[in-house]
Design brief:
The chain has 308 residues and is mainly α. It is built from 13 helices and no strands. The longest helix has 36 residues. It comes from Rhodococcus daqingensis.
Length: 308
């Protein structure tokens, strides 16, 4: 097990470098002068502009800028934003909100998606199964921003049972509706994956053997059907955690949440490569760690899988 984890950690290094290099290059190639954009309508004097470029290493070649950034990551020094605030403080202010939102969304989608998927899979071909499949297809077809605006209008404006916007108070209750909106599309995918896996496994030989031995229906479903059906679902959830955090830009914009999405958007507009790459770096780490945990869960779900 230790050897396997060490190998996976080594595999993460080129992925990490490649992802950060790609994002850094994309921000670097954005047209315009970020120093002039920082000044707004008032032009800076050449001396002040040169001083700022030197301060943020913008006078160096691209490769040198990127290597300096990597050196800072090793010491957890992500640099300084154009507003003068350390990027580490910006990360500390925005990421806890988005992580809380993403985890709430993944709990909602996994619990309800697996629950409805199991029931639909066990009742394959019946009315409930057909209804669930049509509903999930409808959810996938509707864009997230449409669902967000509808939830905001009906739950917040018309019925008044939920806050219209979140703002600075990102508490559990205020994030509940945005988390539901964020995880709704993934809920449909989890539901369909679970339904398909359960429908296939319920007629497997080991399930018929367990039933013939007189095991209770609950034990057959939980131990012999559900446990073997969760591998594709867990794989999807592991990849979806990073996707939820990255895809929270739209949801955070609709509900005015001061998280990662809004911060990245503003940093891209201002051309702050250090801020953008720092946020993406954390997202990449979260994604890689989540996938490592998924690989380790395979052995717990399927006894046939062992890591030497």
């Amino acid at each position: 097990m230790g050897w396997y984890i060490g190998r996976r950690l080594l595999q993460m290094i080129p992925v990490f470098i490649g992802a950060t290099l790609l994002i850094y290059a994309m921000v670097f190639l954005i047209p315009g002068d970020p120093i002039q954009a920082l000044a707004g309508d008032k032009p800076l004097s050449p001396a002040v502009a040169d001083q700022l470029r030197e301060r943020y290493h913008l006078d160096r070649p691209f490769v040198v800028q990127y290597l300096l950034y990597l050196r800072g990551i090793v010491t957890l020094d992500f640099g300084t934003s154009f507003s003068g605030q350390p990027v580490r403080d910006v990360l500390a202010g925005a990421f806890p909100i988005t992580i809380r939102l993403a985890f709430m969304a993944i709990v909602i989608e996994s619990v309800f998606g697996i629950l409805f998927g199991v029931v639909a899979g066990l009742r394959k071909g019946r009315a409930f199964d057909a209804t669930v499949l049509v509903l999930s297809l409808f959810i996938i077809a509707v864009p997230v921003f449409v669902i967000g605006f509808l939830a905001q209008f009906f739950l917040g404006v018309k019925w008044g049972i939920a806050p219209v916007t979140v703002g600075a108070d990102a508490s559990f209750t205020r994030l509940l509706v945005p988390a539901f909106v964020l995880g709704l599309v993934s809920f449909a995918y989890v539901l369909r994956l679970t339904r398909t896996s359960v429908a296939e496994n319920k007629d497997a030989d080991h399930v018929r053997t367990a039933t013939a031995k007189g095991l209770s229906r609950r034990r057959v479903v939980v131990v012999h059907i559900l446990r073997n059906s969760l591998i594709p679902v867990v794989t999807f959830l592991g990849a979806d955690l990073g996707a939820l955090m990255a895809g929270a830009i739209v949801t955070e914009g609709i509900f005015n949440i001061n998280g990662v999405g809004g911060t990245i958007y503003q940093a891209v507009i201002r051309g702050e490569a250090a801020t953008v790459v720092s946020f993406v770096t954390v997202l990449v780490v979260v994604f890689l760690v989540a996938n490592l945990l998924v690989d380790l869960l395979y052995a717990a779900l399927d006894p046939r899988i062992r890591y030497a």
